[in-house]
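Field guide to reading this record: the first block holds the primary sequence, the second block holds the structure written as discrete tokens, and the final block holds curator observations. Each block starts with its own label. This record concerns DUF4386 domain-containing protein, catalogued under organism Mycobacterium kansasii.

BLOCK 1 — SEQUENCE
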Amino acid sequence: MGREDTKLIQYLSIWLVIIALLSHAVGFIFLARFLPPTPPSRDASYVASFYHENTTGIMVTCVLVTFVGPLIIPFFGVISVQLKRIQRNNSSLAYTQLMSGAIGASMFALSAMLWAAAAFRPDRTAQEILLLSDMGWIFFMMPGPFAITQLGAIGLGILMDRSHDPIYPRWLGYQNLGTALLLVPTACVAMFRTGPFAWNGLIAFWVPAALFHIWFISMLVFTFKAIRKPHAAVLEPES
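BLOCK 2 — STRUCTURE
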């Protein structure tokens, strides 16, 4: 396979992840109405009523997420390709990034399956629906450390690039590390039912969600640019 074919596959991966992100947004906001998230402080009857009223939208969203969710993984593969160009003989950060991203995407799909199970049988008891809904949100939020590991690997990889024309701008490395740090509260949502650290709270959900989407857009733009850079650009070490 020639270099142009390889670049074409990488560009295709970027377009696939854009489709995946748009599909997730449409599903979560307009179909399932998962934004804002169902408050963890709500009782079983409220949660059951939410699933009864939105059964079709939730099921369509969960199926959509299961299908398009894996489209994110090829993009993580493209990022790993760029990290390998930076590290050259040491690809540990590239593999760490790819594995962490793939596991995180898998947990995301699993949360959708749990929400689908909650909506699948409307005749379940309210407590059973509440249990499945809670599990879905916990599986959605608590794997944050996988994203932290992923972004940490990307950030370190970018900052290790000492070439005259780096693959990624250095500030993007700091953005990755800063975003990783601010994702830490997502791992603590099981400890809170109300307040900013609950899974619908400002610190545990809204801030990480906003920063994660900004990160995604930044990585999309600069990975697209990185694909266009020739290999020679990273083979000239600084004096």
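BLOCK 3 — OBSERVATIONS
The radius of gyration is 20 Å.
The chain has a mean pLDDT of 92.
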